[in-house]
Design a protein that fits this description.
about 55 residues
């Protein structure tokens, strides 16, 4: 990922933000990297689910 990638401003409930912050630390990632990783995992799972239809 680079600084030229588009930026997106997202409003999160405080509880969800705290959760992402905590899991990012546990996984030695920034919050941004944790969010991107989780979205990529979700996308992969969606593709698997779509193929199973």
């Amino acid at each position: 990922m680079s600084r030229t990638d588009p930026q997106v401003k997202v409003r999160l409930p405080a509880e969800l933000k705290d959760y992402i912050q905590e899991t990012a630390g546990e996984n030695h990632r920034t919050m941004n990297a944790e969010i991107v990783f989780r979205l990529e995992q979700s996308k992969k799972q969606d593709n698997v689910n779509e193929q199973q239809k």
